[in-house]
Amino acid sequence: MPLTLLPDLGDLLRLQPQFNAGTVVEALRHLGAREVWWATGRDPDHPLRDALPAAGVALHEAAPDWSWADAEHEQLLSFLGQYPQGRERLKRAAQAGRELAALVTAPSRCPRRSAPTF
Description:
The chain has helices at 12-15, 21-31, 47-54, 67-80, 84-105, 110-113; strands at residues 35-38, 58-61. The chain is mainly α.
């Protein structure tokens, strides 16, 4: 079976009724996936943590502890904020994040989310 990567939308699974944990389970069934290698993180409250096993999809941990990377990320943000070019890049990154959030929270159906033109 080929490897298929699905993006983790995290809290959007809780907030967006058009794309929730049930939709992910439906997509996995459509793809014929019976197991998931979890590479997102160790959040015990992630909506898929319970939804996948309840739907009969085996869940395997593949994510290492990334707390060191989170600390380095915070340090990088602090350094970037000290310089004009860094502040400009942070503004552009924030704008890109807002655009992405608008895209993934817009109502749509699973076929559009998985279409090659997306």
